[in-house]
Specification:
Number of domains: 1
Number of strands: 12
CATH architecture: Sandwich
Bound molecules: 2-oxoglutaric acid
Low-confidence stretches: 1-12
Structural class: alpha+beta
CATH topology: Jelly Rolls
Order of helices and strands: HHEHEHEHEHHHEEEEHEEEEHHH
Radius of gyration: 20 Å
Amino acid sequence: MPLTTRPSGASENELSMRSHADGLTDYSVQGEARLHTLDIRGPVRYGPDGRLHSDILEVYAKHGCYIFEGLVAPDEIASLQQDIATLLDRAPSGRGEPLDAKGRPAFGTEFAVPVYHFIKPLSDPWGGTSILNGRHPTKMAQPQPQKGSPAQVVHLMSGMCQTMSSGLELYGHPDLLAIAAAINGDDFVPYNDAIFVKLPYLGGSVSWHQDGVTHWDASYWDEGIHGFNFQVQLYPCTSRNCLWVIPASHRSGKLDIKSLVHENGGSEQLPGAVPLICQPGDVTVVNRQMLHASFANTSPDQRVSLTFGFHRRSSVLGQSGSLSQAASEVYDEQRILERSAVIAVAIDARSKRYPEEKAYCYRPFTGLENDYRFTEENIATVIKDYNLKDLSI
Ligand SMILES: O=C(O)CCC(=O)C(=O)O
């Protein structure tokens, strides 16, 4: 039995970091070999019609994921890395603490949605709980952190379009938005965003799950109905710290994850999975219906993944709040417009930072560009606390 699975009768405290890391070795080798047999990576390419190349769309439709190599340029990645370093430096010293580790007022206390989400090092905060609609039914092994590790570490940061200028500019990236349009239609709408932080020897796990929660039982269900997530990678992602996916699982409907783990001898090392190994600047696209997970980071390498998703408009319109939102929130035209306006403002913010680049033309805001410029007023009305209006399905 792989060592990342807790031996029966053993308390989780008995799993050392070393055993956890060793237990992933064979699985990593096999997963990497499997990854190389799949043709799921390459630079972004467009067809003669100027839209994302149909070859890429076919691969994405078949496997549910794609790795766009080097899509975000090195200078932009450097800005993002710098802004992330600042955010981490200014984080509260722990959950709910007013000061950062250097005794300064912590960053981001003015935002309605807390910026920082803390966990115990190497833990799995959602597995086996009812959090996020209970979509993580099994718990990952939680190795013991090294002596002297902090009691809490940052696991997630929310609100990248208001916490860092490079985050808002990235949200308006023309290639990313063209990919969103190719997959979800020109009238695509946003979902949410989260920055996953996997610090070396400390980062927690995210147990196996599928993201969508609303449309599984609908008669009109299809493999793209819950949209997709981008992950923009700021550092090299290895099989030890990266996101793992089970290719083609987005086409299987809602999976019984508890049974899959049970049938796998209780091991969370599910068969058939591949690690999404990336370089800085690579961007993964993962269908939200894919079975995916990441293990506790018992490696020396950090991963920071800027994660943000998009939906088909038709999937969202008329739906009610889900995941962490109140069910009474209805995603009507007005709500969709208010949240989508972040894209329009981001495009303008980006064009000020990268004036040589051809700006993306976001169809729902064609003709409204002058109302959604990157101005003080729009920062206050469109951007501030935009993530209260996420469209989570
Ligand atoms: O990046 C990770 O480790 C987890 C990402 C994830 O589960 C998600 O985007 O739904």
